[in-house]
Structures are given as C-alpha cells and as structure tokens.
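Hi R.,

Here's the chain you asked about this morning:
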Amino acid sequence: MTKLWRRFRKRPMPMTGLVLVVAFLLLALVGPLVTADPTQQDYLATLAPPSPAHLMGTDDLGRDAFARIAHGAQVSLQAGVLSTLLAMVVGIPIGLVAGFYRRWLDPVVMRLVDVTLAFPFLVFAVGLAAIIGPSLKGVVLALGFAQLPAVVRITRGEVLAVREMDYVDAAVADGAGDGHLIFRYVLPNCASPLIVQATVAIPAAIIGESTLSFLGLGVQPPTPSWGVMLTTAQQYLSDAPWLAVWPGLMIALATLGFNLLGDGLRDVLDPRSSR
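And the predicted structure, written out as tokens:
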C-alpha cells in the first residue's frame, strides 16, 4: 500500500483529482452542517449578487446559493455513490458467473448486455427515471441500472482473462472447488479494474443526476439539487448569471476530480505501468 501511494503521489494530475474529490466530499458532508437552511426565503434579498452575507448570492426567492450548493453536493454524492454501489452489487455477480461458467449462460447474458448498451447511458437513464417516477430513490435506481451493463461486461471480461491463468489451472489440478477458485483467485484479481470503473461511474452518475433533475425527472423542488438550480437559472442568465455559474462549475469540478483520480488509480493499479 505504501508503494502504491508513493507511485500515486508522483503524478500531479491524479493528485489534483484527489484534492478535488476530497473538497467535494467535505462540501457534501460538512457543508450542510454549517450553512443556512437552503429553503429559507428572504424576499428582501432576491437575486442578490455574491457578498459577505451571501457568498454565492441568492436566487429568485432569496434563498442562499451557497447553502443550496452544499446541500446539492450531498444529493449528488448520494446519487453517485449509491447508484454505483447498486450497479456493482448487482453487476459483479452476474459478470462473474457468466465469465466463470460460460456454456449457455455467457451468450445469453452478453446478448442482453449488448442490447442495453445499444442505448446511450443518459437516454437509458431518462427512460428508466420516467418509468420509476421523479425522486432521489428513482434517480438512484435509474442510474444504477443504466450503469449495470458496463459493470457486467467489464467483470465478465476480467474473469475470462483470469480464468485462463496458470495459477488457476494449478488450483484446479490441486482439486480446488468453484467457490475456492472464485473467491481466492478470480475475484481478487479482478478488483483493480472494478475499482477504477467505480471512480469513472460516480462522475457519470453525478452528471446523470443533474441531467434528470434539470429535466424534472429527478430530485424535485424545493429540495436543493445542482440540476434544479440550473433549471431555475435559465430565466435569469442576464440578470443573475452566478445562478448558473456556481452549479455548473461544481458539476465540472466534481466530475473532473473523479476522472483524474480514476486515471491515476488505473495507472497505479495496472502492473504493466510498473518500471
């Protein structure tokens, strides 16, 4: 672990991603505890520009933009982490079984995966969210199942590669059962690409949550969400541009941070990048 950290910290871009991710986590976890009520309205301070009293200004109802950004970060974190966790919990066992046992199960699973992958991620998520209904729970389910095919495909590919390794053949010759092979040899050696996939899936889910909320299929007002804030900001782009700048900037920085972190983890965890 110490060796991996030394290799990781030598890369400036992944370290930048780590800083952005930590800042995002602090905003999501600590921000709501120290900011004002994001639904509190002050009609004497509507569309107020950034000031010491309101660091990021206020919206059309006089609600503090910084408080809404902080609470919106919490919503984005929940949607990103929970949907990715759902995709991993459901997708890894399916890909593991399909890749390990193959026979008739593998073609059936992969044809279903190919069909779902024919739909773009956001289009698939929008369709599922429209069926499930607008709510944070609906967002998590829609994004989780939209990410499921990619997780199944990656897991299955890694299992097929590991299944052919010499140490697995040696364990089979030694009399190891399927359960021992899967949990002792196959699954641990598939962990690295799956960890990287999770860091890529979380920012995709953050964008997905913002998109669904922007379209009215996600978190509903008055609950703060970066997508809901962008919807409101459309009407005031000329009078109060900061209403669009702050949530847009937060989405960009959060997704950039996770993507840079994922690139760094891929380089560090890939044995072929060692020198």
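The chain has a mean pLDDT of 90.

Let me know if you need anything else.
M.
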